[in-house]
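User: Could you go from structure to sequence for me? I need the amino acid at each position, not a summary. Structure tokens:
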């Protein structure tokens, strides 16, 4: 402080130095939680509509995550998990009394009811799956940050489209592009 007073040649310089010091001190004393915007308090209902199912066999396993931990395929890291029998090629899952916040959804269409994702020898999924934000999986699952969404209203509806045969779908798209040239 004494150094600043010696360097301050005018009252105006002194005021500028004091303002700088007060700003730095107030930033240092601020807790990290105050720098984040606060979410409104309350609970809402999330309605997840899953479409594009290739058949009505089996069930849907849906996991709701509130962070990166466990996303997308470790149900133990999810906030809530749901199993629902499929009655048509569209499935609705309603999640009630959900605190406002940030979430991401992943699901599996377990056609053979064995409770796990069937894959071929290369690890390519044989059963349907999907994510909030409808991220198209090409080489592995999307990052949580790419599919997250906010629940800040009493009711939010999201649509998720089932994906099947990711490698075959990509090959088909490439072949169609070549034909159109």
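Assistant: Here is the amino acid at each position, in order:
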């Amino acid at each position: 402080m004494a150094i600043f007073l010696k360097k301050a040649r005018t009252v105006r310089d002194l005021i500028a130095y004091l303002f700088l010091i007060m700003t730095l001190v107030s930033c240092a004393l601020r807790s990290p939680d105050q720098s984040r915007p606060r979410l409104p308090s309350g609970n809402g209902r999330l309605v997840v509509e899953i479409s594009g199912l290739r058949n009505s066999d089996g069930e849907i396993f849906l996991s709701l995550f509130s962070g990166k931990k466990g996303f997308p395929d470790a149900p133990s890291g999810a906030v809530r998990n749901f199993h629902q029998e499929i009655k048509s090629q569209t499935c609705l899952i309603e999640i009630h009394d959900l605190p406002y916040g940030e979430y991401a959804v992943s699901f599996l269409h377990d056609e053979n009811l064995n409770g796990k994702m069937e894959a071929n020898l290369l690890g390519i999924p044989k059963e349907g799956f999907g994510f909030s934000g409808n991220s198209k999986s090409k080489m592995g699952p999307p990052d949580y940050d790419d599919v997250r969404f906010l629940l800040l209203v009493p009711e939010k509806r999201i649509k998720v489209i089932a994906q099947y045969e990711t490698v075959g779908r990509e090959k088909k798209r490439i072949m169609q592009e070549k034909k159109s040239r």
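One structural detail worth keeping in mind: The CA atoms of residues 63 and 81 lie 5 Å apart.
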